[in-house]
Amino acid sequence: MVFSAEGPSVRELAVQALSSVERGYDLLAPKFDHTPFRTPDGILRATADALRPLGLFERGLDVCCGTGAGLGTLEELCVAPVTGVDFSAGMLAQARRAHPEAECVRADVRALPFAGGFDLAVSFGALGHFLPAERPALFAGVHRALRPGGLFAFPVGAPQPVMSGSYWALLGFDLVMRARNAVWRPPFVMYYRTCGLRPVSDDLRTAGFTVSTLPLAALGHRRGSPRYGLVLARKAAAS
């Protein structure tokens, strides 16, 4: 991971890591866009390019919108003003400044306060903040927020090869976080290896979605397979 000169200091990161998820992101918010944690523009562009041929979207929802990187993607795709939801007031403040036309709502996404109003929902890099037992509530809320026929989309990376440095870096990060959460309160939930494609797809189907994946070939290949794919979870159309 590479931090720019405008990013947080080591001390600031340490304070964030010893906070709750909400407080940690409130602290990080002013410098978040200068960290590697922000979704790269290439992934945002590839997602927008993949979704654009799938139809005309009216209203869009960014689930765990953070500072609003995904709101820009939605604004490209949707004809009506878009909505972002997050539980960090600090992150939402940054999102409002970056996207003044968007509606930014503070809420726990495990209990989304929406019903049937959106054609498209997206999420970028947020699933690691939810324990597997929490995903059903998250996905049920997204399903409820969509209109019949609505689409929930989010990019996922292909599994890292076991012999790669990235594999061991992510495994090490998760082990450190588990050790931290075993001895320190409040917990900071962020795991990279708890949201594999198969269990996530199973949870989406349980929530009522039909699930497919679309390769994001523009982001490159590894050993002949795309490095990233786009999960497409479709709510059934009205009968």
Question: Care to give the gist of this entry?
Answer:
With 239 residues, the protein is an alpha/beta fold. The chain has helices at 10-17, 21-28, 41-51, 69-77, 89-98, 135-145, 165-183, 197-206, and strands at 60-63, 83-86, 103-106, 118-122, 146-157, 209-215, 221-222, 225-226, 228-235.
Could you explain how this protein is built, in words?
There is one protein chain. The chain is 36% helix and 20% strand. It is of the alpha/beta class. It folds into two domains: 1-38, no CATH class; 39-159 and 196-235, 3-Layer(aba) Sandwich (Rossmann fold). It has a seven-stranded mixed β-sheet, sandwiched between helices. Strands 7-8 form a two-stranded antiparallel sheet. Strand 7 and strand 8 (225-226) form a beta hairpin.
List the topology elements.
Layout: H1 10-17, H2 21-28, H3 41-51, E1 60-63, H4 69-77, E2 83-86, H5 89-98, E3 103-106, E4 118-122, H6 135-145, E5 146-157, H7 165-183, H8 197-206, E6 209-215, E7 221-222, E8 225-226, E9 228-235
Parallel strand pairs: 1-2, 1-4, 2-3, 4-5
Antiparallel strand pairs: 5-9, 6-9, 7-8
Overall body shape:
globular
Look at the structure and give the CATH class of the largest domain: Alpha Beta
Q: For this entry, what is the oligomeric state of its chains?
A: single chain
Total helical segments: 8
Question: How many domain regions?
Answer: 2
Distance between the termini: 48 Å
Weakly predicted, low-confidence segments? none
Give the CATH H-level superfamily of the largest domain: Vaccinia Virus protein VP39
Strand order of the largest sheet: 3-2-1-4-5-9-6
Radius of gyration: 17 Å
Binned strand content: 15-25%
Query: What is the CATH topology assignment of the largest domain?
Result: Rossmann fold
The ordered H/E elements are: HHHEHEHEEHEHHEEEE
